Amino acid sequence: MEADSQADPERRTTLVFESELGDVRPRKPLPRIWTVFVAYFAAFAGSVLVQIIAGIFLVVWLLAHGADVKQLTSDLQAMLSTPQGFIALASMSQLAIGLAAFIPARLSTEPTRLRLGLVAPGLPAWAYPIIAIGSLPPLALGIALAVALARVITPDPGVQHLYEQMTWAWAVPFVIFIALVPGFVEETFFRGYLQRRLLERWSPAVAILVTTTLFAIMHIMPHAVVNAFVIGLWLGVLAWRTGSVWPSVVSHAFINGSWNVWQTGKMLGVFSPVPQVGVTVTISVLAIGCFLASIWLLVRRPLQTGGTTASD
């Protein structure tokens, strides 16, 4: 036995002694936690860095095209508050987050698909629209808390400026981008790489809470942080109970897409700023019904344990 343990000292297996049988059996090593926080730091720092680089590039471009140095800050803000500027900047941030998930997943001893939770959740096809629509109550709660916070802290005017700059030509690409790209990339990173690793070491409540906190902090602005925290709790529960990130990807995409369809629709005159009472009541009843049905689906199905066991 001593020879075997000295032959492979890096395995760090825990030996389980059974007194009655007198044998020794190896137990799989627990996965490392520090990789979660290293990956998060890399995603956060990378997201900030690419935005700084993009800002420097735009400043140089503006100066090369004769921009007034005194108006440089306002010109830069004006460019970044357009839909095309937002998509360009957000694309680079999403790339940094995606790389922070896929690079360590590729280095894992497990298949990348399993490591990131890109596995079938075992839900019937009809459950996906129910779970997606059922995500509206958490969104509504997050928005309500953000509105309450706005009474204390003034919101960032950049978001409002973005919607004011919206045009028909950019509305569809903007909505598609903000729904699909963050919906997939952020869920793969947070609920996939981070949360699945934490679930191997911590209780579901702690793992989901820590992952959600990191997810919210990534949104930086206080109002977005509050909203993202509430939504993140729901997305974390979805990924945990189903053992897959696909339900949370669908829900995240639906949340981003539906909210921005509403916002861009108001700016372009498609929707009334104040919806009719009948429409509001119908949507509210449908959303609450789907939310309760989603909980029923998650509770009635056996818990899917799709966690990782590698020590990477």
Question: Can you walk through the features of this model?
Answer:
With 312 residues, the protein is mostly helical. The chain has one domain (34-300). Helices cover 70% and strands 3% of the residues. It is built from 13 helices and 2 strands; from the N terminus they run αββαααααααααααα. The protein has helices spanning 2-7, 34-64, 72-80, 83-107, 112-115, 127-133, 136-150, 157-164, 168-199, 204-217, 222-242, 246-267, 277-300; strands at residues 14-18, 23-27. It has a two-stranded antiparallel sheet with strand order 1-2. Helix 7 runs antiparallel to helix 11 and helix 9 (168-199) crosses helix 11 (222-242). The longest helix is centred in the middle third of the chain and has 32 residues, at 168-199. The chain is globular, with a radius of gyration of 23 Å.
How large is the count of helical segments? 13
DSSP, total strands: 2
Which secondary-structure class do the elements indicate?
mainly alpha
Radius of gyration from the CA trace?
Answer: 23 Å
Helix content, binned percent: 55-70%
User: Residue-averaged pLDDT, rounded?
Assistant: 85
- Taking the alpha carbons of the first and last residues, their distance comes to 25 Å
3D shape: globular
- Spatial strand sequence of the major β-sheet: 1-2
Largest sheet: 2 strands, antiparallel
Count of domains = 1
